[in-house]
C-alpha cells in the first residue's frame, strides 16, 4: 500500500482506469489455455491449435490500429466500452462452441475486439499526466494488472481443474464488469484532433517516425517472447508431467513478484539509467528466467524461474510505453500507441505457431533456451534505440519549434522523471 500512497498525486481519471483494469484482469486468464482447450475438447493436434491461436493474433493487428484511430477520432471512453463488450460476446461464444470451426470463428471475432481497449486506455494515462510522470503511471498500470493477476491465476487454477470452458465465461463476466465501470465513472471525452502546432518533422505520422519503427521491431520480438510464456507454459508443463492448470499458480507467483518488487523501481541507480539501458537490464533478467524454465522439471524450480522472469518484466512496461507516448505529437498519442501496440498482434500470429512447432519437434528445453537467447540479443540491440534517439535529437528543429522528448521532459533519461 505504501507504493500506491506515494502515487496519490496522479489524477483521479488514472486511478479510476487502473481500478477498472484490476477488475478486468481478474478474468483475463483464458487465452493461455485456448490451445489446451482445443487439443483436449476437440482432439486436434497442438499444431492445429496453434494455427487457431495464430488466427486470433492476426485479427488483433487491425483491432489495435482501429482502436487507436477510434480513440483519437471518436473518444477514449466509447472505444473502451465497445471493445470490452465485443470481447465478452466472443468469449461466451468460445465457451458455448460445439465444433472447432465455431471456436475458430469466435477466436477471430475475439481478436478483432481484443485490442480496441488498449490504445485508448494507454492514451488516457498519457494525456492525464505530464511527460515527467509517465514512467511512474505506466509502471503503476503494470502493478495494477499484477494485482488483478494474483486473483486471476488462482481462479484459473481452480476453474481449470473443473472445466476449461468456465475460464472463458469468467473472462467474459470480467470484461462486462469493466465496461460498466468505465461507462459509469470515467468522464466522457470529445474526439481529439491533431494539433499541428506541435508536429515534428520526423513524426507527424507514426509510420514515418523512424524511432517509433525501431521501437516497434524490438517490441514485436519482446511480445513474441512474452506470449511464448503465456501460451506455451501450460503445454510445457503437460510435456513434463505436470498439470497444465498449474500454470495458473505460476502466473500468480509472477503477479505477486511484480507487485512486491515495485519499490525496486525507486532505487536511485535504476532511476538514473536511460530508458534503453533499463530495457536492456530487463531483457537480461528475462533471459535468466527463461533459462531457468529450460531446466525446470518440478513446480518449485519453475516458480523460481518465473520469479527471475517477472523481475525482468517489471522493468519493461514503464520505459517503453512512456517513451512512445513522448514521441507522439499532441492529439496523436492513441495512434502512436496503436502502431507500437501491433507488435502484440504480429507476435500473436507467430508465437503460437513457433511455440507449438518447437514443442512438437524439439521439446520444452529447446523452446525456453531459444527464447532466452533471443532476450540476450534484444538486450544488446538496445544500442539501436539509443542511436536512433540521439540522431532524432540532433536533427534541427524546424518551423514549429517543437521540443525533443528530452527537452519536453520525456523518458530518454529516466532520472528526469522526478
From TrEMBL:
Range of residues in the leader sequence: none
Transmembrane segments: 12-38, 44-66, 78-94, 100-117, 138-160, 166-186, 207-227, 247-265, 277-296, 302-324, 336-354, 366-385
PROSITE patterns: MFS, SUGAR_TRANSPORT_1
Record keywords: Cell membrane, Membrane, Transmembrane, Transmembrane helix, Transport
Keyword RNA-binding: no
Record Pfam families: MFS_1
Domain of life: Bacteria
Gene3D superfamilies from the UniProt entry: MFS general substrate transporter like domains
PANTHER family per record: MULTIDRUG RESISTANCE PROTEIN MDTH (PTHR23517:SF2), RESISTANCE PROTEIN MDTM, PUTATIVE-RELATED-RELATED (PTHR23517)
Protein name, UniProt field: MFS transporter
Amino acid at each position: 500500500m505504501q507504493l500506491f500512497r506515494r502515487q496519490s498525486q496522479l489524477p483521479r481519471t488514472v486511478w479510476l482506469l487502473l481500478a477498472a483494469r484490476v477488475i478486468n484482469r481478474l478474468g483475463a486468464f483464458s487465452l493461455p489455455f485456448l490451445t489446451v482447450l482445443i487439443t483436449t475438447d476437440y482432439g486436434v493436434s497442438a499444431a492445429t491449435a496453434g494455427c487457431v491461436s495464430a488466427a486470433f493474433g492476426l485479427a488483433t493487428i487491425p483491432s489495435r490500429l482501429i482502436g487507436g484511430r477510434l480513440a483519437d477520432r471518436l473518444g477514449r471512453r466509447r472505444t473502451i466500452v465497445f471493445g470490452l463488450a465485443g470481447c465478452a460476446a466472443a468469449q461466451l461464444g468460445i465457451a458455448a462452441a460445439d465444433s472447432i470451426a465455431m471456436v475458430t470463428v469466435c477466436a477471430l471475432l475475439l481478436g478483432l475486439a481484443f485490442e480496441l481497449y488498449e490504445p485508448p486506455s494507454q492514451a488516457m494515462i498519457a494525456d492525464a499526466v505530464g511527460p515527467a510522470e509517465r514512467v511512474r503511471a505506466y509502471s503503476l498500470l503494470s502493478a495494477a494488472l499484477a494485482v488483478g493477476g494474483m486473483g486471476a491465476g488462482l481462479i484459473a487454477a481452480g476453474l481449470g481443474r473443473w472445466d476449461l470452458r468456465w475460464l472463458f465465461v469468467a473472462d467474459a463476466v470480467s470484461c462486462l464488469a469493466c465496461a460498466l465501470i468505465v461507462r459509469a465513472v470515467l468522464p466522457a471525452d470529445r474526439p481529439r484532433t491533431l494539433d499541428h502546432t506541435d508536429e515534428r518533422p520526423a513524426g507527424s505520422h507514426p509510420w514515418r517516425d523512424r524511432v517509433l519503427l525501431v521501437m516497434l521491431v524490438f517490441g514485436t520480438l519482446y511480445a513474441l517472447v512474452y506470449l511464448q510464456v503465456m501460451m506455451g507454459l501450460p503445454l510445457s508443463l503437460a510435456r513434463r508431467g505436470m498439470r497444465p492448470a498449474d500454470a495458473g499458480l505460476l502466473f500468480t507467483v509472477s503477479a505477486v513478484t511484480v507487485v512486491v518488487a515495485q519499490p525496486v523501481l525507486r532505487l536511485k541507480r535504476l532511476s538514473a539509467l536511460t530508458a534503453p539501458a533499463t530495457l536492456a537490464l530487463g531483457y537480461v533478467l528475462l533471459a535468466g528466467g527463461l533459462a531457468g524454465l529450460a531446466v525446470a522439471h518440478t513446480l518449485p524450480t519453475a516458480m523460481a524461474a518465473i520469479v527471475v522472469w517477472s523481475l525482468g518484466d517489471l522493468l519493461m512496461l514503464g520505459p517503453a510505453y512512456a517513451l512512445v507516448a513522448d514521441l507522439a505529437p499532441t492529439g496523436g498519442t492513441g495512434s502512436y500507441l496503436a502502431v507500437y501496440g501491433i507488435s502484440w498482434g504480429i507476435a500473436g500470429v507467430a508465437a503460437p505457431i513457433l511455440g507449438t512447432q518447437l514443442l512438437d519437434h524439439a521439446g520444452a528445453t529447446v523452446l525456453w533456451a531459444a527464447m532466452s537467447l533471443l532476450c540476450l540479443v534484444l538486450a544488446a540491440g538496445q544500442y539501436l534505440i539509443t542511436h536512433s534517439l540521439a540522431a532524432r535529437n540532433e536533427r534541427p528543429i524546424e518551423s514549429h519549434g517543437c521540443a525533443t522528448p528530452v527537452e519536453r521532459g520525456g523518458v530518454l533519461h529516466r532520472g528526469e522523471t522526478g
